[in-house]
Amino acid sequence: xxxxxxxxxxxxxxxxxxxxxxxxxxxxxxxxxxxxxxxxxxxxxxxxxxxxxxxxxxxxxxxxxxxxxxxxxxxxxxxxxxxxxxxxxxxxxxxxxxxxxxxxxxxxxxxxxxxxxxxxxxxxxxxxxxxxxxxxxxxxxxxxxxxxxxxxxxxxxxxxxxxxxxxxxxxxxxxxxxxxxxxxxxxxxxxxxxxxxxxxxxxxxxxxxxxxxxxxxxxxxxxxxxxxxxxxxxxxxxxxxxxxxxxxxxxxxxxxxxxxxxxxxxxxxxxxxxxxxxxxxxxxxxxxxxxxxxxxxxxxxxxxxxxxxxxxxxxxxxxxxxxxxxxxxxxxx
Length: 333
Prior knowledge:
32% of the residues lie in helices and 26% in strands.
């Protein structure tokens, strides 16, 4: 099968087309002919070696973290899926590799894809959808009438997050540029802050939650807008000791995380708020919930560009440039 691989970590490491064996499947696996995959910031973080502390991979490494496609083979103990089923999913972190013609994935990590979406549209959902759903339901417990700031509303995560937050009845503020204004407005954002001209930390106060997709200075300033007991979920900030304990990383790695995140911990204590670093977990059951939202018309995919598999390197460069409005898709079949 054709697959896009790297042979070592590095920002300038080329992404190469390679011929590899079609993966074998275990008794609880399905083999999926991949029709489309999407790119996410974690993809170039993995490529550059920035995730080595948390994730260990062997080379050559097939990149890609979510997909849609058609089941072509099922393991002996698989009962929920059959050949011919159209599915979408996010493989578990030890089994990434969606930028390939085939992938073997555990049956618990996939769902039937939304019937009203193309394969390209369906591939845009799993990682951002699961990440946001887990942030809003499992950590923030977002309630109707609460106020949430979603950073970078026109990005791949933000476009999904705005729609889910509005579906849950929240008041949504978001940051965007002039180019992203109409898009985030159309998705239901209640308050739009032009981050190139305005400072969100000077305009907002008393917020219940922040969904941080940026990290760095934006994350640190976000503590200022929360009310006491408010919560921040970050997918781009530093993991802290709480995450190390929850992920059972061991005392040494947890101690290291405590040290590197001490500034964030100090801001958390000073503002009497909570900070959570989120490392999303695959879930076919939650993908089924998102499928129902999508089929009911509550959430729609937002796609910026679609690239063929051979141009995955160009797609990575475009996503890293930071200007994407919605998701960047790789068409494989």
